[in-house]
Amino acid sequence: MTKAGEFLSGVLGLLAPIGAVKSKPMFGGFGIFLDECMFALITKNDELFLKADDVNRPGFEGLGLQPYGRMPYYAAPVDSLYLWEDIRPWVEGAAAAAFRAKGAKGKTARG
């Protein structure tokens, strides 16, 4: 298994308690999905970024964490990458942001 494969496998294992997470190659890295909603991404440099919106973005910014370019994904706190209990609030916030975005898109499309 490659280093990238090991990081991806480790992240998927870490995130498993939230539900059936799946990965898809994207952006030179991987998109991470829960119920067809992308809530995280792994860069080609093995960095985890989590979906953010107006609700959960202040938590990332309060720690000085940076977004992934112009995308609405912020770096996961490095000290949260080892235990589910540490990353849980960040992941749950990211998943909620992804579901809010999906709902907003659906409402816009329906008028």
Give structural notes.
With 111 residues, the protein is of the alpha+beta class. It has one domain (3-110): 2-Layer Sandwich (Yope Regulator, Chain: A), CATH 3.30.1460.30. It is 41% helix and 23% strand. The protein has a 5-stranded antiparallel β-sheet with strand order 1-2-3-4-5. Strand 3 and strand 4 form a beta hairpin. It starts with a helix and ends with a helix.
Structure at a glance:
The protein has helices at residues 3-15, 57-62, 84-110, and strands at 21-26, 29-34, 37-42, 48-51, 73-75.
List the helices and strands and how they pair.
Layout lengths: L2 H13 L5 E6 L2 E6 L2 E6 L5 E4 L5 H6 L10 E3 L8 H27 L1
Helical content stands at 40-55%
Shape: globular
Proportion in β-strands: 15-25%
How many extended strands?
5
SSE pattern, N- to C-terminal: HEEEEHEH
Biggest β-sheet strands, sense, barrel:
5 strands, antiparallel
Roughly what is the average pLDDT, rounded to an integer? 91
Number of domains: 1
Total helices: the number is 3
Low-confidence blocks of residues: 107-111
Alpha-carbon distance between the termini? 47 Å
**CATH-derived topology:** Yope Regulator, Chain: A
CATH class placement? Alpha Beta
CATH superfamily: YgaC/TfoX-N like chaperone
Provide the gyration radius in Å: 14 Å
Key structural traits:
alpha+beta; 41% helix; disordered C terminus; 5 strands; Yope Regulator, Chain: A; single chain; 5-stranded antiparallel beta sheet; 111 residues; 3 helices
